[in-house]
Amino acid sequence: MVLFWRLLLAHLIADFPLQTDAVFAVKKEKRWGVLLHSILFGLVAILLAKPFLGSGAVWSGLIVLWLLHTAIDKTKLILVSGRRGDHLVYFLSDQVLHIAALALASSVLIRIPQVTAIAQGPASDVHLFKLGAAYVVSIWASPLLCFYCDGAFSPRKMGFKAYQPPHWRILGYVERGMFTAIVALGGALFFLIPIAFLPRVSIWYFAGKRDFSRWELILGSAMAILAGAWAGTLG
Questions:
Q1: Is-contact 224 180, C-beta < 8 A?
Q2: Which one of 111, 155, 162, 198 has the minimum C-beta count within 10 Å?
Q3: Is the same domain home to 105 and 23?
Q4: 94-127, pLDDT tens digit by residue?
Q5: How far apart are the first and last CA of the chain?
């Protein structure tokens, strides 16, 4: 499973923190724009799969995953550019297809003796990659999911990355990161929970609550708690 978690973390990093407003704008507006995003995924995947790169099969698998990532994202762009617009179903379907491809590729590659031997060695430190995945989902993925849930199955405009101004978005990242860490570490640190909500209080004060919905409060906080609780079990 260690190869799967390495590749999953690569996907999450490329799809969320590295898919900035600028990257998404190129991806949306240029015919070749999806390649910029998929190249970022490929580079992060190579970096995180480094212990396994002595196997030609792993290189082949990474190339196939890169092609699939490009195809899935391009297909989504075509679909959301149509009359129906973008909505929660497309977002979830996109993520399910990406993760299913990673799981399938990992399950095939791990059966190769050379890859199995590497997975049982130093590269088997899987809890670090699970921890990374928990933080990426909590900090970067949850607000985007909240944005889609806020509109339920209604079409959203393609510029969904503009759902929050950048400086308010960063405050949200800090909040969820602190919340996840507090829950993961537990114990006496729970008294810091009110401090974790200070960024949100600041946003409410200066923005008059215009930039946060009930989903951002309920679902975002719940995902941070779950991510922290899971991270706390990883040791």
A1: yes
A2: 111
A3: yes
A4: 999 999 999 999 999 999 999 998 888 766 688 8
A5: 17
CA distance 6 to 123: 10
Other CB atoms within 10 Å distance of the CB of residue 21: 12
Whether 165 and 225 map to the same domain: the answer is yes
**What are φ and ψ of residue 211, in 5° steps?**
-105, 15
Residue 65 within a domain: yes
Instruction: Tell which residue, 31, 146, 36, 170, has the closest CA to residue 91.
Output: 146
Domain that holds residue 77: 2-123
User: From the first residue on, what is the mean pLDDT of each consecutive set of 10 residues in the chain (235 residues)?
Assistant: 94 95 88 94 97 95 98 92 77 96 96 89 82 94 80 48 63 85 84 76 65 69 90 84
User: pTM for this structure?
Assistant: 0.88
Q: Which residue has the tokens 């990532």?
A: 69
Number of other residues whose CB lies within 10 A of the CB of residue 227 = 27
Residues found in the chain? 235
**Number of domains into which the chain is organized:** 2
Q: Contact, 193 vs 181, CB < 8 A?
A: no
Q: Which has the closest alpha carbon to 218: 131, 150, 154?
A: 150
For residue 86, list its beta bridge partners.
156
Q: Are 148 and 25 in contact (CB under 8 A)?
A: no
